[in-house]
Amino acid sequence: MTGVELPPIALQQASDWAFVWENSGYLFAGTALTIALTVASVLLGFFVGFPAGVVEVYGGRASRGLVETVGVVLRGTPIVVILIFMYFVFPTPDLTIGVLGVTASLSGAFLAGVLGLGLRSAAYQSQIFRGALQSVDEGQMEAARSIGMDKLASIRHVVVPQALRRSVPGFQNEVTIVLKDTSVVFAIGLAELLTRSYDLFVVRTTAVLEILLFASAIYFVLTFTTNRALDLVSARYAIPGGESA
Amino acid sequence: MSDPLLRVERVSKSYGDEQVLREISFEMDRGDVTVLIGPSGSGKSTMLRCVNRLTEVDSGEIYLDGERVTGPDVDVNELRRQVGMVFQDFNLFAHLTARGNVMLGPRQVLGLSKEEARRRADEQLALVGLADQADSYPAELSGGQKQRVGIARALAMEPKLMLFDEPTSALDPELIGEVLEVMRDLVERGMTMLVVTHEMSFARSVASEIMFLDGGRIVERGPPEQLFERPEHDRTATFLRRITQLHS
């Protein structure tokens, strides 16, 4: 046999995998950004979304109306639009924070990403918590009020502890959705895991599948571990015997 | 003499077009056990719930220990601290143990320390015969045990008056006895009790007064012997005949 011979397909694939391996550091750096964005956004979403859910169930007319309206707008707007809005319309300044002598610089783009993803997640999380709060039997609130607890104490000590337990499955979903949605921050110039994968397979088009498989495996590990961790939390706080009272 | 613990004056309440209470008036002295009987929808539970203001009256007044408890300026939490309530469906706090259920009020409302609240809870659970179930969660208890925890939870607030809203209606027949027994103990300890129930033998043996409600009115009232032996109204007689047949 003569002429130019292509290497056998197996060797070609092997070299594509080698390419992925050579650039794994680049992808892991993107993974770190993905994790940072997810953690910060989910936390922001919780600390805004949980009170929002409480207001939607127990708030007065005005506060409820406001929270519901903001929620509808956030849930009804494409995430890319929200991010661009956060980044270009209300530019967030770069921020340097120092905690215990360790300083970290947060770019304006990162902060805009966290605000956009976090506030949108808050809008979704508020619905998870609203549903969970509403699912707690009215008799629980009545019993709490009947021993002289005020409304806030009854919500805090009786309704919320039960509602939080019922929120776990919805919250697990939300975490995985936020995790994968972090990829849209490419729109404001941030290079997280999926954006970096894209950058790589543009350079080496034969390795598209390998690169995407590698990135997917990372996403899988992240979603699997967070879901398992939340399962453990859920089991740890499960009410013995079930929830009937 | 005329210093009743509870005085209900011309209380009326409607839900939409339906008038469930029509100018109800009665009094209870300390240590009285008043039993409300009547067909479903006759307003018994609503009357009970007006006393601790889980339901608001439309008109009329209610006085507890001489203090008016109806009206917008009344601190309902202060009122409820003095009036215990036991629910048909128990309504135990599902995420707390029996002890946790009983401790919550003393802790959060009376401001007792954890140790004091715990001691009080264990005392109350012992009084209802559940000392050994203090660490059980509601879902791990039988209906009768749940209701006894419910009674202990109300008693831990050291109320002046106890309201019982059909406390045995959600129970399997074989579990009713243990709850009634606890209620009898309470009567013997001198607790003032306003009870809605269909347990006629219980009503007959412990009530100081029985009131028969129908259509939002007190049709007939009096000591148990009188109502059971010589009811003045046909409606009372018919109701009692039907309900005793049902439960015998």
Write down the Rg of chain A.
Answer: 23 Å
Oligomer: heterodimer
Q: Note the overall shape of chain A.
A: elongated
Secondary structure tally: strands of chain A: 2
CATH topology of chain B: Rossmann fold
Q: What is the CATH topology of chain A?
A: MetI-like fold
Instruction: List unreliable stretches of 5+ residues of chain A.
Output: none
Structural class of chain B: alpha/beta
How would you portray this structure in words?
The complex is a heterodimer of chains A (245) and B (248). Chain A has 245 residues and is mainly alpha-helical. Chain A has one domain: MetI-like (MetI-like fold), CATH 1.10.3720.10. In chain A, 75% of the residues lie in helices and 4% in strands. Chain A contains nine helices and two strands. A two-stranded antiparallel ribbon of chain A has the order 1-2. The longest helix of chain A is centred in the N-terminal third of the chain and has 35 residues, at 24-58. Chain A is elongated, with a radius of gyration of 23 Å. The mean pLDDT of chain A is 92. Chain B has 248 residues and is of the alpha/beta class. Chain B has one domain (6-247): P-loop containing nucleotide triphosphate hydrolases (Rossmann fold, 3-Layer(aba) Sandwich). In chain B, 39% of the residues lie in helices and 24% in strands. Chain B contains nine helices and ten strands. In chain B, strands 6-7-8-3-9-10 form a six-stranded mixed sheet, with helices on both faces. Chain B has a four-stranded antiparallel sheet with strand order 2-1-4-5, covered by helices on one side. Chain B is globular. The mean pLDDT of chain B is 95. Chains A and B meet through α6 and α7 of A and α2, α3 and α5 of B.
